[in-house]
Amino acid sequence: MTDSSIGEPADITAELVRGLLREQHPDLAGLPLVPGARGWDNQLWRLGDGLAVRLPWATGSADALLRKEHAWLPVLAPGLPLPVPVPQRLGEPSARFPRPWIVTTWLPGEPADRAPATRAGAGDVLAGFLTALHRPAPAAAPAGRGRGGRLADASAHFERQLASAVDADLVADPDAVRALWADGVAAPEWSGPRLWLHGDLHPANVLTADGTFCGVIDFGDLCAGDPALDLAAAWILLPDAAIDRFHAAYRPAPDPATLRRARAVAAQRALACLLIGHAGEHGRPGGKAKWGPPARASLNRLLATAAG
User: Is 80 left (phi over 0), alpha (psi -120 to 50) or beta?
Assistant: First the structure.
């Protein structure tokens, strides 16, 4: 989720994508090509049965994010228990399209914002994925775009989100939400090594099948830092019955301070999803009307946990 706009979105057509393939990867140009999805940063086109083309279209930051995925995902993917889109080819800027683009593996499944996880076992699956991902990162690993570091550094952004949610009448008790954030900020900071993090585990970036997770996509915010950033996903992605299973299965077991920080991050993400849902209900660009109800449920769960 980003707002680093570069103006009007690029006009990406099948003819353009086919032309780029002919120009730089002609061995792939004859494969069937169909539209896939439009994200905040990139458009996705399915290429044949097992590949996809991702092209930046609406944000200036997307170029660097694609190059980051191309550099690091092939290194991380073999150690992960869920499929991820592994970059296969890199497309360079050209007269036809002035930005980089990539060809990755295609992952089957439905995004969780369309088909949420419903099984309690989904908690074990998510815990297994994050346990495998959260390994010490090398010194060259990328830093997050304001994520994975000190929560206090994000407090101003949190307050803006909360104010927007209050103005839109989306939050009944802003003081309780602010207290949840403050508790996370007050918790001891992460003192361990910088761990690999997905960085953006919201419902559109996780795939499901048969009620559980079957893949994780969009590693544009891949970074190294505090695992609380990813552990927040338990309250955003899982049904109630799966959250305790997640915490029991994740290794090493998160300490109380990490859980406090994770709850704060989850509250911030729930606010963001509420605002995206509200935008969708009012037909604004980038809005997703279906995000509102599950985000509200996530925030209510977090507040109940804090009260308990």
Answer: beta
Tokens of 106: 């295609």
Residue-averaged pLDDT of the chain: 93
Query: pTM of the full predicted structure?
Result: 0.93
Query: If we measure between CA atoms, which residue out of 62, 58, 57, 53 comes closest to residue 14?
Result: 53
Runs of H (alpha helix) within 77-187: 122-133, 155-167, 174-186
- Chain segment 94-145, per-residue pLDDT in tens: 999 999 999 999 999 999 999 999 999 999 999 999 999 999 999 999 988 8
Residues present in the chain in total: 308
Contact 48, 32 (CB under 8 A): yes
Sign, Cα dihedral of 159, 161, 167, 173: negative
Q: By C-alpha distance, which of 41, 43, 50 is closest to 16? A: 43
Q: Give me the phi and psi of 167, to 5 degrees please.
A: -60, -35
In the structure, how many helices (H) and strands (E) does the chain have?
A: 10, 10
